[in-house]
Design brief:
Length: 174
Amino acid sequence: MKLIDKYLPRWDFAKCNQILLNNKEIPENSIMNHVDFGKSRIIRFLFFLRGLSTKKLNFDKALRAGFILLDQNKSEIVLGLIAQPWKLKGNIIHTTPSGFSEFDQSDFIKAAWNFRYEKKQDGLYLTTETRIHCTSKNAHKKFSIYWSFIGFFSGVIRNAMLKIIKSELSKDLV
């Protein structure tokens, strides 16, 4: 069972992205805390367009912005977010992992986002999955409109993040 299943077993929207790594063994998850996703021009540009800071784009910054660390083990890290992303400031609800699980206020989304290492026959993969659960029909309608504009760019960002992580992990192999 994936850790993300524990926090968002049912969802309305989901997107997975994956990359084959050069590593043979699962690296330490601590690498995620140090990777600067701002190395990607496209990520910086898309964050700039959204009015977000483009300096030191890493997990620590995501946690300060309202994401919470829901759980982690040797092969997976799960972040969570409760918000109304269709609003300019996002109306982010700051909470705890148990608060995330229990939250059911109408007109919000709960997002779970993981990074997971998975060994397959042809090598070690890093997958990121984003799941969105809408807490009401109204939230589903609003998020559907929001996602129709943002979904593609969200995928571009996730793919760029995976490439940066792969590059950082490859440095450690040399």
